[in-house]
């Protein structure tokens, strides 16, 4: 059985890999890493002696890494929202031109 320190160290490494996957926008890898990290969390929950967990988390700077993950996710969400907004604006512009196009062609035919 793996001890608590080793599990938290694995958790830390997975968290760093998650940050890299978010920064590279590698969604498939991100999904896989999140699944692996959840398995580690489940193993940590099953350990009976958790008396040293706060000390180990502090020693490994896990809270800072989790904060970096949170910030990276927020930044990615902002990028996605901006992209969605641009796509909506582009669609709106395209739809306006499509609506005007048939009307313009009718006027062209009437003139001849």
TrEMBL record:
<keyword id="KW-1005">Bacterial flagellum biogenesis</keyword>
<keyword id="KW-0963">Cytoplasm</keyword>
<keyword id="KW-0175">Coiled coil</keyword>
<protein>
    <recommendedName>
        <fullName>Flagellar protein FliT</fullName>
    </recommendedName>
</protein>
<keyword id="KW-0143">Chaperone</keyword>
<comment type="function">
    <text>May act as an export chaperone for the filament capping protein FliD.</text>
</comment>
<comment type="similarity">
    <text>Belongs to the bacillales FliT family.</text>
</comment>
<dbReference type="Pfam" id="PF05400">
    <property type="entry name" value="FliT"/>
</dbReference>
<dbReference type="InterPro" id="IPR008622">
    <property type="entry name" value="FliT"/>
</dbReference>
<feature type="coiled-coil region">
    <location>
        <begin position="30"/>
        <end position="90"/>
    </location>
</feature>
């Amino acid at each position: 059985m793996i001890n608590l320190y080793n599990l938290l160290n694995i958790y830390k490494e997975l968290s760093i890999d998650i940050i890299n996957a978010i920064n590279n926008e590698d969604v498939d890898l991100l999904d896989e890493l999140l699944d692996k990290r959840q398995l580690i969390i489940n193993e940590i929950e099953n350990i009976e002696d958790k008396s040293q967990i706060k000390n180990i988390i502090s020693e490994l700077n896990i809270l800072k890494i989790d904060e970096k993950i949170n910030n990276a996710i927020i930044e990615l969400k902002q990028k996605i929202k901006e992209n969605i907004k641009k796509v909506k604006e582009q669609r709106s512009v395209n739809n306006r031109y499509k609506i005007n196009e048939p009307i313009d062609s009718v006027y062209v035919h009437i003139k001849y």
